[in-house]
Design a protein that fits this description.
This protein is α/β, with parallel strands linked by helices. It is built from 12 helices and 7 strands. A 7-stranded mixed beta sheet has the order 3-2-1-4-5-7-6. Helix 6 links the parallel strand 4 and strand 5. Helix 2 crosses helix 10, helix 6 crosses helix 9 and helix 7 packs antiparallel against helix 12. The chain is globular and about 55 Å long. The two termini are 34 Å apart.
Length: 270
């Protein structure tokens, strides 16, 4: 693993774990709809050994275990892995890099990465292929281009207050949402693409302070909060998400969530 790649995953771990409790309890459930759509497609259930790449605080792992799967996971954030381990006692959950997975070849029946693999992360797909058994299934997800895309005005606030180099790197990461980019990445890594799909993911918050805590816990918020004025950024973010608030005062944050499903090559007959 190159020094640049090492620095990238360590920086990601630092960013996504900076407010681990808030992320775990106020934002991570954004993927409920996506997991409901994806789990049957990667055959999560009894007898399946599943790897969760960029597993965060272990919410997906908890749901997969409830469905009967054996789950392993990896994330760059030590703080999030600590939460994941308390949520999933006995599960094999590790701090590390998705670019250098610490498992042997052909260990897993299936793998998922929920908004963990983005543009420029081709090596993570190569590693996923290595640890999957022949014919193993992979599901990855990422934000689409909308509609709906309530995160766009919010994340534009973070981008305006972040250093220029962060804005440039975010554009590259988000390239995965462009037509055919995810599919090309999977094919180049050696997978057969089976299906593409989408759903609408929804998060709800009861009041402005909770909404702000949730959004401030995300990785993209970190460069802005460290570079700009947090009070000013908070006000701009709450203004940006004001249209998400209903007549009962509840914020309903809805976003286009895309996924791609792929299969590892079947072992040749001998």
């Amino acid at each position: 693993m190159t020094t640049a790649t090492t620095d990238t995953w360590r920086a990601a771990g630092d960013a996504w774990g900076h407010r681990a409790a808030d992320w775990s309890c106020l934002f991570e459930h954004y993927s409920h709809e996506l997991l409901t759509a994806m789990f049957p497609k990667v055959r999560v259930g009894p007898g399946i050994h599943l790897l969760d790449i960029a597993c965060g605080a272990g919410m997906a792992a908890r749901h997969a275990r409830a469905a009967g799967a054996t789950v392993s996971g990896i994330d760059a954030s030590e703080a999030l892995i600590e939460v994941a381990r308390t949520r999933n006692p006995g599960a094999d959950l590790r701090v590390g890099s998705m670019f250098e997975l610490p498992w042997n070849d052909q260990t897993f029946d299936a793998a998922i990465s929920i908004n963990g693999i983005w543009g420029g992360c081709e090596q993570a797909l190569t590693e996923a292929l290595r640890v999957l058994r022949p014919g193993g299934l992979l599901g990855i997800s990422f934000w689409g281009t909308g509609p709906p895309l309530d995160l766009r005005p919010c994340f534009k606030v973070f981008a305006r207050h972040a250093p220029t180099d962060h804005y440039t790197s975010m554009k590259r990461l988000n390239d995965i949402a462009s037509p055919d980019v995810a599919e090309e990445m999977l094919v180049n890594a050696g997978f057969e693409v089976l299906e593409q799909g989408r759903c609408v993911s929804t998060i709800e918050w009861p009041d402005p302070d909770t909404a702000w805590r949730a959004l401030a816990s995300t990785g993209p918020a970190v460069p802005a909060l460290r570079h700009g004025d947090p009070a000013e950024i908070k006000q701009e973010v709450l203004t940006a998400i004001a249209p998400c608030r209903d007549e009962n005062g509840i914020y309903r944050f809805r976003n286009d969530h895309r996924y791609a499903l792929a299969k590892a090559p079947t072992q040749p007959t001998t």
